[in-house]
Amino acid sequence: MKRFIICLALTVPVVSTTLFASAQATPPPKPVLDRYYQGVTYFKAGDLEHAIDSFKNAALSAPNDPLAHLSLGAALQQHGDLEDAAAEFRRAIAIRPYDAFAHETLGLLLQSQGRLDEAIGEYSQATQLRPDTPLLRLNLGIGLRIKGDLDGAINQLRQVVAAYPDNLKARAQLAAAYQDKGDNQLAAHEYRYILARDPNNFSLRYDLATALMALKDYDNAESELRKAIKIDGKVPETHAMLSQTLSIKGQTGEATKQLQEAISIKGDRPEWHCQLAELYQKQNDLQSAISEYKQTEKLDPKDSNASYNLGYLLQVTGDTDGAVAAYGRTIATNPNSVNAHYNLGICKQKLNDLDAADKEFKAVLTLNPNDGESYINLGRTQVLRGNLQDALTYYRQGLSVENNDPQAYLELGNLLNKLNDKAGARFALETALNLSPDNKQVLLSIAKLDEDENKPAEAEKVYRRIVDRDPNDLKTFRLLADNLDAQQKTEDSITILQKIVQLDPKNPDAYNDLGLALQKRRDTSGALAQFQKALDIDDNFIDARINIGNIFLAQQNYPEAIKEYDKALDKNPKSAQACYNKGLAYVGANDITSALKSYKQALEADPKFSNALYAIGLLYMNQNNQAEAVPAFEQYLSVDPNGSYSQQARENLAKLKGTVQTAPDIHKDSAQSENAGDSEPPKAPEINSAGMTGAQ
Questions:
Q1: What distance in Å separates the CA atoms of residue 418 and residue 673, rounded to the nearest whole number?
Q2: What is the rounded CA–CA span in Å between residue 392 and residue 86?
Q3: What is the pTM of this model?
Q4: N or C: which end of the chain has fewer CB within 10 A?
């Protein structure tokens, strides 16, 4: 902080009676001298009214004596009658124009009135009249500095200092002139000279610290500020500057304390609250930062930066509605804030207010037509609307400008994959990977694309690349296990599932998935052991209980299967899967009535559990109950038109609506379900496993 130091070097004394008498060729009469002497007495006593009367009488009695007018002018100036005082000084100069002191005195008065150019003129005249008196240059230097003529000011002040090295006022003004000019090294030298002789000068220590800050000499700046605080600890600006210094030095905690001290002394400075918020933000104390930004807004509602920063912090801490309001205030005070419009659009997008989001992103593009991220976000809103072709256009526009955004290329690749443009999707995803090598999300999308293109072996390579880089990535290990299972690499899949159990030994899902894989390998005892381990971890984990029931069902041990399904239903009576598989067990036990009841319970739990609809239709068809079978198959096709039994359901409907047919043997059906074809009886539903594989 730079301060203007106005030092009026010369005072305006009332001249002595001796000088007054010697100023005239003939000494004034004694009554005149008496009146003048009375004026001096009154002036010294502070009785300006009587002093002015006495000096007026003296000036009237001796109108050609300049000192009488100077004394009257001095009294009038002290009284506040500045125009009359100036008039008296001018009369003195008119009588004796070579009087440098009179010019200096008039200059001081003019400067006090703000008439700086006129004052400088008088100071210059004084120095020209008395070039042998360097002290007259002090006020000229001050005036030139105030005017902004720093070179001129420095020239005058250096002459004063050369003549009077210990004139600390002149040195202080010279230091300030150097500092104004940016010569902080020279300014610091002058301040140090003064402080060596006047160590308790608070203002100059503060100004020295300011110069040192400009020189990036933060250690010495800190030292000077701490000395200033010892002199006077109640000046808030000193604490604020020390906070700034400490912050630059990385001492954030101490910087925070100093700024808090400044605010405790003077709490109405919005910029300090804003700086304190930034310090809190550096320390990740976001709630305190939010509080300070709110206080900044309260003190200065037009501070758009504070509103924006508040919005940003509210956004990152999850207060989206608060962020929307703060960004709105930012835009109200600064309509051209691109970042406020952009982040407001992001918030509106998150709140699913897509029209408002589009409006903000388009506002950004009005202000900056080359903002690629806004085009990309317009694409995102179109994806959320389901307008994939429009989204594609925006993504391409955005990436034509912002072509280094791997996330945007990732999203474009996924979008093109949905649009079945596999080549375009691969190009976009590979571009994303080039920009962000080993980006997990990009690699996962490439693996999905490989699987969509029926390249499971290529997808396997990608999954292995991910887990090689992160051996604890459970999610990718599960995807790899699924991939290996789809390739019928059962042993490899089991190895991965065992790895998952090692990584996540407290997760019943891991044991359940391993059990399903072992069951597929026909390792029934191993599968049962894994399902039991899942139940040991969580007795309420009904997937494992259902899968134990499925093993008994496959073994045609229908009573034990039903017991396991009932145990599952004790834990969750709304398990459609347990109800459905229990129905299959009843069919195996030839209890068709109970089977129908179980299938219907499955539909009560989940009206869209399509396999139950198909199974009901099959049972009614077996009973030659066309009236019940037809709607069951039709409802199945309505719920799952492309389901695994959709073709068989259509064929069954054709038979039911055509000629009378032979009722299917549902037991033979179940035993031969994998080989059922057009000439075989209607295909029976399969057992549903609970968990990763074959889940409904």
A1: 34
A2: 80
A3: 0.73
A4: N
